[in-house]
Amino acid sequence: MTQPDPEFESLLEYVRDARGFDYTGYKRPTLMRRFQKRIDAVGAEGYGAYREHLAGDPEEFARLFDAILINVTGFFRDRGAWDYVAEEIVPRLVDGRERGSTIRIWSAGCSNGAEAYTIAMLFAEAMPEEAFRDRLKIYATDADGDALIRARQAEYTPKEGSDVPDDLRDRYLFPVDGHFSLRSDIRRSVVFGRNDLLQDPPISRVDLLVSRNTIMYFGPEAQDRILSNFYFALRPRGYLMLGKAEALHSRTSLFEPLDLKRRLFVKNNGFYTEPRVVRRMVAVEPPAYESETGSLLREAAFEHAPLAEVVVDLEGDVFAINHAARAMFGLMTSDVGRPFQDLELSYRPLELRSLIDEVAKGSQPMITKDVPWSSSGEEGDRRFLDIQISPLIGGGGERSGVVVSFADITAYRTLQDDFDSARRALETAYRELQSTVEELETTNEELQSTNEELEMTNEELQSTNEELEMMNEELQSTNEELEAMNDEMRERTDEAVGANAFLTSILSSVHQSVIVVDESLRIGAWSRAAAEAWGLREDDVRGEHLFNLDIGIPTDRLRDPIREVLAGDEHEDVVLQGHDRRGRRIACTISFAQLMGAGGRVAGVILLMVLELLERDGR
Fold first, then answer.
1. Is 153:204 a contact under the CB 8 Å cutoff?
2. 281 in a domain, yes or no?
3. Can you tell me the distance from the alpha carbon of 107 to that of 439, in angstroms, rounded to the nearest whole number?
4. Is 272 part of a structural domain of the chain?
5. Is residue 218 within 8 Å of residue 143, measured between CB atoms?
6. Which residues have C-beta within 8 Å of that of residue 251, sequence separation ≥ 6?
7. How many structural domains are present in the chain?
8. Is the overall model pTM greater than 0.70, yes or no?
9. Which has the higher per-residue pLDDT, 360 or 387?
10. Residue 198: what are its φ and ψ, rounded to 5°?
11. What is the pLDDT of residues 45-76, one digit of tens each?
């Protein structure tokens, strides 16, 4: 046998003490090859130099662990074995368990998660969707944290996804950006976590344990311990699936072969081993030839057992108290031999006397869980215990007493309480999220309604816009008509201005006073001679009533003649005496003529006044 290299063993101990990774149970040839690979990569000379390199470069630890933990796996690797699991194992677990009970699967050494998702797809094919979601629990563990990160992402290359059968790939994988991603319900069915098969406790109550080509890297002693843990993890008649390159050369009594070709085994209930819990159901008397050393060793094992234990004989007296019980309950070695009922422990934290009597009369152990207890009576010192009372059977089958074991589960209870609190918080958050989703849906409906209203409003605005466009066209047409009328009015205005200028020119050239009045006897025209004669400008008299003007002659005598002319009759000249603007006496002869308007209608009267000075003739 090859002797171990002291320097290499020292290097393994350094890695274990520095980072907590214990590789001392791995097979030395394989392990040394992988260490040598990193030694050659960094250029170190020997194990001692590589240890110094690790101490100076902490990042080298990660590269070393990647070299040791070779993650070789894939979907449906060794297809024949998985076909057997799908046809034989999965139906037994789905149909054989009680209605509504949970099916628990453990994929140990899961690497990138491909085998764990393979298991999930097989059960998804065999179970209804609701049962798959509620009944199946798949736990996938590995010692490589980086591999677990990739496994949780559930994303695989096209080459990796090609190993999945076509019908399953179409249902459970879908392409995204050049890779395959698992369907969400398959991803949620697997819980990933870190677990060192040698140092961490196994997952319990497992129906199917898949560990393929993982234990092959460990030495015989490490394999024995791992297989014992696997035995503890499985339910009665639970199934173990190993890799194609692995065989159970040791501890074969733990498992029965179910199909050696495909490396399927079943837990052997006829053989029991419990590497983590000391069983005290039966106290076997030592054979007569047992040495005194063996007896002392058994007493030392009881004294230093991790559980607090008290042995009570059939007389009700304390027979033995181990160190853990003395430390937990403040007992003394002098309490051995006293009646158990005299101890405070007999009724605190639990009334044990009646339970001990019941177990002593029968043969079945009794367990009471979650018993609260405080050594000082303070709330902060409160702990929880699992108390088991088991009968002690002698070599001849007679009852010799009972053993009371106290397991401190405070840490577990605290974790359970934290878990329950987190679950309640999660349920509260889920309800809040559900409420938010409902509010979002309501808001979405309101937005949709608002959108519909906006669409209707938009339609109305479009209709209004069309009407406005039509009105605009009408206004443009009206504007064009107005512009045409404006042009026509401008032309007529120009004509009127020209006519007015013409009339003004005529009136200015006439030496007699000319006054034009309209039908209401208001001044419409006033010649320059009239302005000179009467001293009033045309601007002062235009629009004024004729009979309201004081021009030096009695104009009220013209009322009847003007009305007759307006009526269409003719009238003779009228002579009025008065004075002009200079105060001179005059005789004014007034002639009347009709002012014709549109349509031949009489629109006014033209008064032609001829002034004659009376003083000039001496009259």
1. no
2. no
3. 41
4. no
5. no
6. 223, 224, 227, 228
7. 5
8. no
9. 387
10. -90, -35
11. 888 888 888 888 877 777 776 666 555 578 88
